[in-house]
Amino acid sequence: MSESHHEKDTDSSASKQVDRQITHISSEEKGLSVDEMTDEQFYARLSPNRKRIIVIIVSISCLVSPLSSLAFLPAISEIATQFHTSATVINISSAAYCVVMAVSPCLMGPLGDIYGRRIIFLACLTLYTATSVCVAVSQNLSMFFVFRCLTALSGTAFFATGSSVIGDIYPPTERGNAIGWVLSGSQLGPAFGPCLGGIIVNFTSWRVIFWVLAGLGLFVLVMAFCFLIETGRFLKYKQLSSHTNSKFVFVPYNPFRVVVALRHISLILAGMISVSLHYNMYALLTPIRYVMNPRFKLEEPIYAGLFYLAPGVGYLVGSFMGGRWADYHVRKYINKRGRRVPEDRLRSAIIAHGLALPGSILIYGWTLDKEKGGMVVPVVCMFVCGIAQTICFPSVNTYCVDSMPHLKGDAIASNYMIRFLAAAVASATILTQINHIGIGWTCTISAFVLWLGFLSNAILVVFGERLRGEDPKKSSEIEFQSQSKY
C-alpha cells in the first residue's frame, strides 16, 4: 500500500517536471519572443537553476552599495584626521551618499524599463568599481566627497532594477521568498560592512576598505556579464528598434516619472513604511562606535566593528524568514477569499513592525542611557532589531511590485527614493541628537517614527484595496484566476 502510494507520488512529481520542461521547450520551439508569451509561458521560460543564478547575482549586487555606505564608519576618526576635519563633517558624506542614492532611481529606474535590466546592471557596476578606486586614492576632502557621491549614483539601481528582475522571472505567489534572498544582500551590507571596516582600519589604512569594495564590484561585474541575461518584457527600446530596423535608437524619457508615481496614496503609505524602517536602521547603525566605546570603555576600532555583528546576524536570520512568511500570508488569504490581494502580504509585518522593532530600540536606547544591563542587553536588542526589520522589508518591496504592475519599475524605485532620503536624514542628524538629548530620547524618536510606519502598514492592510480601487487599472489586473496557475 505504502509502496503504491510512493510510486504515485514519484510519478506525479515526475510528470510535473516533464510538464514544466514541455512548457519551456514548446515556447522556444514555437519561436515566441517574450513579448508574445502568455504569463504562464513567460514565468516558465527559465529553469529553476537559471533563476537561482539570477537571484544570486542580484543579491550580491545589492550588497555592494550599502556595504560602501557604512563600511567606513569605524574609520571616520582616521579619515577626519587625514583630511584635517571633524568626524561630523566626514559623517555628512554618508548623508550625501544616501541623498544621491535617493536621486538614483529617478535616472536608473526608467532606463531599466526602456533599455533593459542587464545593461543597467553592467553600467552601474562599472561606475561603482571605477569610483570606488577613485575614493581609495582621494587626495583631499573634496575628492573624497565627490567620488563617494558618484559611487552612490549606481547604488539604488541595483535595488529598484533588481526587484523588477525578480518580478520578471517569478509569479506573484513566489516573489516574496526571492525578494527575501535579494534583500539579504542589501541588509548584510550595512551590518557586516562596518565590521569589515573595523577589522581593516585596525590593522592597515582606511583606503584598503575602498580597494576591497572596488574588488568586490569588479567580481560582481564579471559575474553579471557572464551569467545575467535580459529579463525585461515589453522594453520600449526593442519595440522602437524593431519598427525602425535600427540597432541604435534613442528613447526620450522623463526622470520625474518615479516622483510622479507617488501620486498614488498606496505608494505614499508604502513609502512611509520604508521611511520608518530605514530611518531606524541608520539611527541604530551610524552611532554605534560613538555610543558603545565610551559606555564600555573600548579603545580600538575593531571592538566597535564587532558590535555590528549583532544586527548583522539578525539581518541574516530575518532574510530567510521574511519572504517565506510573506508568501505564506498571501497563500493563506488566497485560500480564504478565493483571490489574491497584494495588501495581504503586509500582514506578515504587523508584529515585527508594531511591537518587536520599537520595543527593542527603546530598550536598547534607555539601557545605554541609564547604563543598565551590561553589554548583553544592547547586543540582544540589536539582534532583535535586525530580525524584525528584515521580516518587514520583503513584504513592502514585493507589495510595490505587485500592487502597481502598470507602473513597472517606477513603483519600487519611488519607494527606494524616499527611504534613502530618510537614511540621509538619520545619518546627518543622529550624532547631533545624541549629543543634545542623549541616546535614550534619540531612540524614543526612532520608535515614534516606527509607529508612524506601522500605522501606514495597518491602513494599507485594512483600506489598501479600496485606495487602489480609485484607479480601475490597478485592481482589475489582479485576479486570482490568472495567478492560480502558479
UniProtKB/TrEMBL annotation:
The chain crosses the membrane at residues 53-76, 88-107, 119-139, 145-166, 178-203, 209-229, 265-285, 305-326, 346-367, 373-396, 416-433, 439-464. It is a multi-pass membrane protein. It comes from the Eukaryota. Residues 1-21 are annotated as: Disordered. InterPro entries: MFS (IPR011701), MFS_dom (IPR020846), MFS_trans_sf (IPR036259). SUPFAM superfamilies: MFS general substrate transporter. It is found in: Membrane. It comes from Pichia sorbitophila (strain ATCC MYA-4447 / BCRC 22081 / CBS 7064 / NBRC 10061 / NRRL Y-12695) (Hybrid yeast). PANTHER family: MAJOR FACILITATOR SUPERFAMILY (PTHR23502), TRANSPORTER, PUTATIVE (AFU_ORTHOLOGUE AFUA_3G11760)-RELATED (PTHR23502:SF64). Residues 54-470 form the Major facilitator superfamily (MFS) profile domain. The keyword rRNA-binding does not apply. GO terms for cellular component: plasma membrane. GO terms for molecular function: transmembrane transporter activity. This is Piso0_002093 protein. Pfam families: MFS_1 (PF07690). Keywords: Membrane, Transmembrane, Transmembrane helix. Its main location: membrane. The keyword Transit peptide does not apply.
